[in-house]
Amino acid sequence: MTSEGIHPQADPVEIDPVPSGAGEGARAAKAQAPRAGEGHVTPVMAQFVEIKAANPDCLLFYRMGDFYELFFEDAEQASQALGIVLTKRGKHLGEDIPMCGVPVSRAEEYLHKLIALGFRVAVCEQLEDPAEARKRGGKSVVRRDVTRLVTPGT
Fold first, then answer.
1. Who wins on pLDDT, 135 or 104?
2. How many other β-carbons are positioned within 10 Å of the β-carbon of residue 29?
């Protein structure tokens, strides 16, 4: 995992909470994150913010290589709910960006725990190999998108 920073002057966006009927264990899935396209944001974090904004009522399992990573308040909530280490990745508004992650090989186990606690999870997969992204040149980012929504009803 590499460390990529976010310009501290980016404006935050608050993502709406999980609906009240989402389950007792579900907490608001808010994220203090820069808006995509505003301020200086690394390409990877801009992609995360865009995908998170499209899935505000879910924790976002964001695939990065052999891990699913969670950022901002998603990371804080998942870390506490799963009993996993909360770390940091870069800075936003002068503050560390909370981050946690789970290995892809154990993702189903962690998904089941989160769902049992009432969380909704959007699973965001890499849709191409990093080598394919490099062929596009520049600061191309591996294409990612949500391929699965996991909820207590699924």
1. 104
2. 25
Q: How many CA atoms lie within 13 A of 108 on its CB side?
A: 1
Render pLDDT for 77-117 as a digit per residue (tens, 0 to 9): 999 999 999 999 887 666 788 999 999 999 999 999 999 99
Which residue range forms the structural domain that includes residue 110?
12-150
Instruction: Please check whether residue 1 lies inside any domain of the structure.
Output: no
Cα dihedral 14, 18, 19, 20, rounded to 10, equals -110
**pLDDT band for position 45 (cuts 50, 70, 90):** confident
Between the alpha carbon of residue 7 and those of residues 71, 73, 93, 113, 146, the distances in Å are: 16, 18, 7, 34, 26
| CB of 77 closer than 8 Å to CB of 119 | yes
pTM of the model: 0.73
In a domain, 2, yes or no: no
